[in-house]
Amino acid sequence: MRKHLHIGEVAQLLGITPKAIRHYQKLELLEEPARSPAGYRLYDTRAILRLHQIKQLQALGLPLKRIRALLGRQTREQPLHVILQALDAELTAQIQELEARRARIRELLSEGPLEQVEQLPASSRMLQQIRQQLEQEGIQVHPAIWEIETKVISLLEDFRWPISSTLLEQFRLLMHEQPELWRHLLSIYSRLSTTLEASADGELLLQDQEIQALITDVVKYLPVPEMQKPFTDAFAELMLGSLSPQAETMIQLLKQALLEQPHQEP
Question: Which UniProt keywords are listed (predicted)?
Fold first, then answer.
């Protein structure tokens, strides 16, 4: 008299299909069972308990690939509490990510009706850090300056330009490892913003010597590595899209200041 169950009997006992059991074996979730003289698969109680454990974890929402990683090979079983702790940590991380997404969606909804994807405001950790530092220093940045800052950093973060990683890293170093230089740059932003408030006309901005001098100072401190065509053309076209008239004028002044900047040999 046989002591082990056939695959159909195990499937009936657990409420699964023989095909599923064979699939688990193919994925190495279950060891290949012994066979009877007639060639039938024979499953002992250890295999039955293993299948029951797989079924329980599937009920918790885990895919089979993840279950395999949690359980390990059948020859080195993990205690259930270790498996559940790992599952709890994974679900906690997923919940936090979902909560962050939900908070972002609610923030967008609170800003008013958005009709097109192009209206989505930028979401950038670096921009948040810059805004926090400006608030800590009590600096009010002119909307045109912040518009350009947002556009540049968003383009660098959203696309993999040849200069993206280098330029963003230089920004981070400037912010976090050169605080005196960074505060000096913020003070230039502040003076530039004050001057812009008094000069709303774009043509006057182009002729304003004080603004031109301040922008030249900004260019001295901002890292500007070179980028080759056709990337430069694509970056410029994306940069200039949907800018306010004042911001466009500022871009012209920045471009002029960059052209006048002496070339530094590497």
Answer: DNA-binding, Repressor, Transcription, Transcription regulation
- Which has the closest alpha carbon to 16: 62, 50, 65? 50
Task: Read off the pLDDT of residues 240-257 as tens digits, 9 standing for 90 and up.
Answer: 777 777 788 777 777 776
Among 187, 239, 246, residue whose Cα is nearest residue 217: 187
- The helix (H) or strand (E) run that includes residue 104 is helix 80-110
Evaluate whether 135 touches 189 at the Cβ level (below 8 Å).
no
**What tens digit of pLDDT does each residue of 92-116 get?**
999 999 998 898 788 777 766 766 6
Amino acid at 262: P
**What is the rounded CA–CA span in Å between residue 167 and residue 264?**
16
Domain 7-76 has CATH 3.40.50.10490: no
Q: How many CB atoms lie within 10 A of CB 208?
A: 19
Asked if omega into 230 is within 30° of 0 (cis), the reply is: yes
What gap in Å lies between CA 195 and CA 208, rounded to an integer? Answer: 9
